[in-house]
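Question (not urgent): is this output format expected?
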Amino acid sequence: TYDRDWSAAEQHLTRALQIFPGHAMARYWMAHYLLTRGRATDAVAQEEKALENDPLSPFAHGQLGWMLFLTRQFDRAEAESRRALELNPALVFVHTVLGHVLLAKGGDPGEAIASYESAVKAARRHPSWLGWLGMALGLVGRTDEARAVLAELTAAAEKAEAACPRVLAIA
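Got this back:
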């Protein structure tokens, strides 16, 4: 188990933002802190402030999309993810977020799979991103393809390219 000092975490994050309010990563960590403390509205507001500070930042759009996904605001999450990818189509994590959003919305599963495939391609088939693709393929009933991804992940794990059991569990 971990000993978490939530009060100190909030104090340090608040102080970091007082010193440099435009620091996107400090806003990112504050947003995640707030979300873990059950303060979803405040968490989204932190990501929105990061975007206000740098409206052309694909990272800020992507992080806002992620936070909106986590707070089940799927339409806004989709819009922010798409904007991030317009600004930088190589953002692997945003392709994955978009895939998550599209699956959650229950729309076209092919578009969601295409988004995961874009992440896998951009990440050069890195096992972490393959795991999400395998999960999505299984969720939409493309079990043969999901099993092929799982076999690829298993082979990579045996070669010690992906020692993390979490990746296999996702797939």
